[in-house]
């Protein structure tokens, strides 16, 4: 059970995908790179079948309002045999962000993608059951986006006056 | 609007089938979980879980508060194992600050000690309530009686019974109270035979075995495919424990085994195996606790000038980075994913990867075609905590 080093991983990934994978970095030892939504399923399939990243730890989203591509989808994968982890990021535009679903590779992606859709409004193309999961069904906003405040600013019952401030 | 799988399932129901709502107030769903069952008589054709009744916007709060202020929120994620959750959070922040090497050994040992106590408490709830789901009332009372000792000890140390806010970034809230180690030793001596009694009463009970063996079989491939972790994954036969794999905190210095499901009573990965893994883990935790106490009473003894808050950082501003920290909770791999910008005390993004969330998503796969009574057995064996699932 020898470990694969990050440099070896970078070599194999860039030999396969070339320019389509970029921004390689290793924050605290965890290999991170970016790709585009056109290649993400190919990259994930390659990682799963040929490099042995068989465990999908997490799918999540991120919103950077100032960036050109503000919505990010972040995948964490894990290789059980070699105990190596990897992080893949895809950035999307924020009007109608959409990305192919990873449900074809991992059934566990089902709920994780539903959660990302629920909070960031990312449309996972081909997902069989894309409904809200934690918020109520008739909600219209995507609450983890940065323009959505923690508390309703129009509330009148939480003025400082009522608390003697 | 194209129709989802859920809409198709509901609209294509046969005349002989019935939709049955189980929960959110059903006692055996362990919280506010709603399961929509499509049933044909007693047979469950399809299970559709509905979650989110306990959603409290943890991630949004974490993006508006600093790291120390978030610890009480972290405690409320998995409210049965608050120590373990805050330990994971604190380890992540310390690693990002680069101060994880400066923490004194005594503090690390106290953290592991309280975490393992909390793990026993959490597993006792899982075992006891599982008994009551199956129809055994006595083990439930026995488990709660023993857990009460743990609650009292942790209350003595931290001031509260369930939501402790005891482990802080860079240290602890207080040192252990004088006499805690001795009290803990007494508890261990008291608890060891009690665990054997529980095993005789419940684990080896023929009625219990008939209800759980060969029920809800989760093959290893399916468990990995769905992202299951913790006792769910170990019950399916994979020796996988982050305390050994990642070797965080002082776990490399401690001796313990990793119990796995072997299919002794039926098939590997059935409900009985998951139950057995939990009972065995309690034994291992007891073993870890006695080793911690040994160290805390000898070379890491309490001194009068020991200050558990000495290493507390004044301002927690980690540099700009991405970091994913994970730890072995009683329910599986709890992960926190931080994105920081290096300028403020407030993280840009915090994502909690809840083990219960992934563990529950497998339920509709493993409970197709079972009886409604077995459905209850399967939910109990997954051991979900809705506070963590819904965040």
From TrEMBL, chain A:
The keyword Metal-binding does not apply. Its EC number is 7.1.1.-. It is found in: Cell membrane. It is a peripheral membrane protein. Residues 34-153 form the NADH:ubiquinone oxidoreductase 30kDa subunit domain. It is an enzyme of class 7 (translocase). The keyword NAD applies. Keywords: Cell membrane, Membrane, NAD, Oxidoreductase, Quinone, Translocase, Transport, Ubiquinone. It catalyses: a quinone + NADH + 5 H(+)(in) = a quinol + NAD(+) + 4 H(+)(out). NDH-1 shuttles electrons from NADH, via FMN and iron-sulfur (Fe-S) centers, to quinones in the respiratory chain. The immediate electron acceptor for the enzyme in this species is believed to be a menaquinone. Couples the redox reaction to proton translocation (for every two electrons transferred, four hydrogen ions are translocated across the cytoplasmic membrane), and thus conserves the redox energy in a proton gradient. NDH-1 is composed of 14 different subunits. Subunits NuoB, C, D, E, F, and G constitute the peripheral sector of the complex. Belongs to the complex I 30 kDa subunit family. This is NADH-quinone oxidoreductase subunit C. It comes from Arcticibacter svalbardensis MN12-7.
Automatic annotation (TrEMBL), chain B:
Residues 133-391 form the NADH-quinone oxidoreductase subunit D domain. Pfam families: Complex1_49kDa. It catalyses: a quinone + NADH + 5 H(+)(in) = a quinol + NAD(+) + 4 H(+)(out). It is found in: Cell membrane. Signal peptide: none annotated. Its EC number is 7.1.1.-. One of its GO terms (molecular function) is NADH dehydrogenase (quinone) (non-electrogenic) activity. Keywords: Cell membrane, Membrane, NAD, Oxidoreductase, Quinone, Translocase, Transport, Ubiquinone. NDH-1 is composed of 14 different subunits. Subunits NuoB, C, D, E, F, and G constitute the peripheral sector of the complex. NCBIfam families: PRK06075.1. This is NADH-quinone oxidoreductase subunit D. It comes from Arcticibacter svalbardensis MN12-7. The lineage of its organism: Bacteria, Pseudomonadati, Bacteroidota, Sphingobacteriia, Sphingobacteriales. The gene is nuoD.
């Amino acid at each position: 059970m020898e470990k694969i080093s990050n440099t070896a991983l970078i070599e194999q990934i860039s030999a396969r995908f070339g320019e389509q994978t970029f921004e390689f970095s290793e924050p605290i030892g965890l290999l991170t790179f970016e790709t585009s939504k056109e290649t993400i399923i190919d990259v994930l399939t390659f990682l799963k079948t040929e490099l042995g990243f068989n465990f999908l730890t997490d799918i999540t989203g991120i919103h950077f309002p100032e960036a050109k591509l503000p919505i990010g989808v972040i995948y964490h994968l894990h290789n059980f045999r070699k105990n190596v982890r990897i992080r893949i990021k895809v950035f999307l535009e924020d009007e109608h962000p959409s990305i192919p679903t990873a449900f074809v590779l991992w059934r566990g992606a089902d709920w994780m993608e539903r959660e990302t859709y629920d909070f960031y409004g990312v449309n996972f193309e081909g997902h069989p059951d894309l409904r809200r999961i934690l918020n109520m069904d008739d909600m219209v906003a995507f609450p983890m986006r940065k323009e959505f405040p923690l508390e309703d600013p129009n509330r009148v019952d939480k003025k400082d006056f009522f608390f003697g401030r | 609007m194209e129709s989802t799988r859920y809409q198709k399932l509901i609209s294509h129901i046969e005349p002989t089938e019935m939709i049955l709502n189980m929960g959110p107030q059903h006692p055996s769903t362990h919280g506010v979980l709603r399961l929509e069952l499509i049933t044909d008589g007693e047979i469950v054709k399809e299970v559709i879980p509905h979650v989110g009744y306990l959603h409290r916007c943890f991630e949004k709060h974490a993006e508006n508060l600093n790291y120390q202020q978030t610890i009480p929120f972290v405690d409320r994620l998995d409210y049965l194992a608050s120590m373990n959750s805050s330990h994971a959070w604190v380890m992540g922040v310390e690693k990002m600050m680069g101060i994880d090497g400066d923490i004194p050994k005594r503090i690390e040992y106290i953290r592991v000690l309280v975490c393992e106590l909390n793990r026993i408490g959490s597993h006792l709830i899982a075992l006891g309530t599982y008994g009551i789901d199956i129809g055994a009332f006595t083990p439930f009372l026995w488990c709660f009686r023993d857990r009460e000792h743990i609650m009292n000890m942790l209350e003595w140390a931290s001031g509260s019974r369930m939501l402790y806010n005891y482990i802080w970034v860079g240290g602890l809230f207080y040192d252990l109270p004088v006499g805690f180690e001795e009290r803990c030793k007494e508890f261990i001596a008291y608890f060891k035979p009690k665990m054997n009694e529980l095993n005789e009463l419940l684990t080896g009970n023929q009625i219990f075995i008939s209800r759980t063996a060969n029920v809800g079989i989760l093959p290893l491939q399916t468990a990995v495919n769905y992202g299951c972790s913790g006792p769910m994954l170990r019950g399916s036969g994979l020796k996988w424990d982050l305390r050994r794999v990642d070797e965080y905190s002082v776990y490399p210095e401690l001796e313990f085994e990793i119990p796995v499901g072997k299919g002794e009573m039926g098939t590997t990965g059935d409900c009985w195996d998951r139950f057995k893994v939990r009972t065995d883990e309690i034994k291992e935790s007891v073993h870890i606790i006695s080793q911690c106490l040994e160290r805390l009473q000898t070379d890491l003894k309490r001194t009068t000038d020991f200050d558990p808050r000495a290493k507390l950082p004044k301002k927690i501003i980690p540099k700009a980075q991405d970091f994913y920290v994970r730890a072995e909770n009683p329910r599986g791999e709890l992960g926190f994913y931080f994105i920081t910008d290096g300028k403020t005390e407030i993280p840009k993004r915090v994502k909690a990867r809840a083990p219960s969330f992934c563990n529950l998503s497998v339920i509709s796969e493993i409970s197709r075609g079972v009886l409604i009574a077995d459905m209850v057995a399967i939910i109990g064996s997954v051991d979900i905590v809705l506070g963590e699932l819904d965040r």
